[in-house]
Amino acid sequence: MQILLVILFILMITQSFTSIIQVKYYQKFIASITNKYKENSSYEFYTDVSKGKLLKTIVAVVVDSNGKIISCHVCRGFTVFARFKEDINYRDVLLEEFYLRKDKKDRLSQVEDTLAKVYSRKLETVTVNQ
Questions:
Q1: Global pTM?
Q2: Numbers of helices and strands, H then E, in the chain
Q3: How far apart are CA 67 and CA 43, in angstroms?
Q4: Could you tell me which residues come within 8 angstroms of residue 24 by beta carbon, excluding any fewer than 6 positions away?
Q5: CB 22 within 8 A of CB 80
Q6: Residue 90 DSSP class
Q7: Which mean pLDDT values do the consecutive 10-residue runs of the chain (130 residues) have?
Q8: What are the phi and psi torsion angles at 66 (to 5°)?
Q9: Measuring CA to CA, how many Å separate 120 from each of 16, 33, 117?
Q10: Distance between CA atoms of residues 64 and 39, nearest Å
Q11: How many whole angstroms separate alpha carbon 61 and alpha carbon 92?
């Protein structure tokens, strides 16, 4: 019984340590993106998470004032080991397109579904500010 408690304790410490590493990486990544685009005040930065059955997908997207994607970074997998990678397939696409496709009940990938959620949040922000 004591061995089981020791193993459980070691697993909890390991999980805490890897979580700290992931949070530090995430903070560093967010800081690098905001520093890269801080010169252009018309750009907006959004992040969102999509939880799959087994893995998570984190999307970080920079959009201009018209909702066109300037850069899209995706982090997939077991988040402790996953890193953000830029996905150029979404560059110069309007966020609204994903939102409209979701309304039409089109099947979207996890990234596209997350981009549709980002657009919904953007709409909520505009509605609240008016």
A1: 0.80
A2: 3, 4
A3: 9
A4: none
A5: yes
A6: G
A7: 93 92 92 88 88 83 90 83 89 89 78 87 66
A8: -90, -5
A9: 33, 22, 5
A10: 13
A11: 12
